[in-house]
Amino acid sequence: MADKKLTYEEARDALAEVISELESGKATLGESMKLWERGEELAAICQEWLDGATAQLSEFAAAKREKESPDA
Predict the structure, then answer these.
(1) Alpha-carbon span 55 to 61, nearest angstrom
(2) Residue 29 and residue 67 in contact, taking contact as beta carbons nearer than 8 Å
(3) How far is residue 22's CA from residue 43's CA, in Å, rounded to a whole number?
(4) How confident is the model at residue 72 (pLDDT cuts 50, 70, 90)?
(5) Helix pair angle (8-24, 29-68), 10° resolution
(6) CA-CA distance, 6 to 59, in Å (whole number)?
(7) What angle do CA 44, 16, 21 make, to 5 degrees?
(8) pLDDT tier for residue 70 given thresholds of 50, 70 and 90
(9) Considering Cα of 18, then 20, then 23, then 27, what sign does the dihedral take?
(10) 1: pLDDT confidence band, cut at 50, 70 and 90?
(11) Segment 17-68, tens digit of pLDDT
(12) Which residues fall within 8 angstroms of residue 36, CB to CB, at 6 or more apart?
């Protein structure tokens, strides 16, 4: 399934729905496998967003330290 670029919030909410469906125990084995695969895809999207945010925060922190450090 080709997703448009989901936002973090969209992927997180969709993942919560998948988890809820799996936890309900109402899905067949085949449906559960498809839900699991979808959950893995959504978790990867969330992780990509979180990794990007972490990298951006690290860059901001490094730039701030560089700006605040006295010139040697």
Answers:
(1) 10
(2) no
(3) 15
(4) low
(5) 150
(6) 24
(7) 115
(8) confident
(9) negative
(10) very low
(11) 999 999 999 999 999 999 999 999 999 999 999 999 999 999 999 999 988 8
(12) 22
Q: Provide the CB-side half-sphere exposure for 16 (13 A, CA).
A: 6
Residue 13, pLDDT score: 98
What distances in angstroms separate CA 21 from CA 29, 37, 62, 66, one per listed residue?
12, 13, 42, 48
CA dihedral of 50, 55, 56, 60, whole degrees rounded to 10: 140
Contact 19, 39 (CB under 8 A): yes
Residue 4: what pLDDT? 74
